[in-house]
C-alpha cells in the first residue's frame, strides 16, 4: 500500500530514541519518501543498517504489481537501480473480512487515487456502517523487502489481527491507525498508543523485526 505523497526527507533517517544503536553493517536507502513510514522503519532497522533517505530526485514508482510483495519489490528495485545501493521498501494492506479482504493492496487509494488518510478512513467507516462489532474483524499485513542492485533480495512479512472500531479514536499514527484495534492489546486503537507500544505489536514492527533478524544473520 503506498501512502499519500509527502515531501522526501532531506536528513539521514535516525532510529527512534531507545532503539538499538550497534555499529551499522550495511548502507540501505529507504524507498519511502513518507516521513511517517520512514520513522517506523528506522525505529526497527536503525540498529542494524545505516538507513539513508530516499533521494529527492528519484521519481515515484507506479505500484501496479497487484500484490504487496510485488509492490514492495517494484519500489526497492527502482531505488536500488537509481542509487547503486541496496534499498528497503514495504507495502501494507488492511484486509477487512466482511468486505471480502478489501481494501487490501488498494488501501492507500481506497477512496480514490489522491485520497488522504482521512478520506480512506471515512470511506471504510461508511462501508461498515451498521455492521455488528463481532463482524468487523480485520488484519494488517506488511511485506518488507531489501533489494540489492544485482537482484538479490531479503524479504519478511508481518501480520496483526484485530477489528475496526465504529469511530475514529486517537491522534497518533497515520493511515487507518485511528480505527484499527489490534488483538492482544488493551482495547486501544493504534492511534491511541505511544510509538513503542504500537511498534511492539504492529504489522510493520513484526515485518521489520523479522527483516532485521535476517539481515543480521547474513553477517
Please provide a brief summary of the model.
The chain has one domain: Maf protein (Alpha-Beta Complex), CATH 3.90.950.10. 27% of the residues lie in helices and 21% in strands.
Would you write up a description of this structure?
This protein is an alpha/beta fold and 219 residues long. It has a single domain, classed as Maf protein, CATH 3.90.950.10. 27% of the residues lie in helices and 21% in strands. It is built from five helices and seven strands. Strands 1, 2, 3, 4, 5, 6 and 7 form a seven-stranded mixed beta sheet that branches. The protein is globular and about 50 Å long.
Largest sheet: 7 strands, mixed
How large is the radius of gyration?
17 Å
Low-confidence stretches: 2-24
Quote the average pLDDT: 87
Strand content: 15-25%
- Work out the helix count: 5
* Count of structural domains: 1
Distance between the termini: 30 Å
Strand-and-helix sequence, N→C?
Answer: EHEHEEHEEEHH
Q: Which CATH class?
A: Alpha Beta
Helix content: 25-40%
Structural class: alpha/beta
CATH architectural designation: Alpha-Beta Complex
Number of beta strands:
7
Predict the CATH topology: Maf protein
Q: Please state the overall shape, judged from the principal axes of the Cα atoms.
A: globular
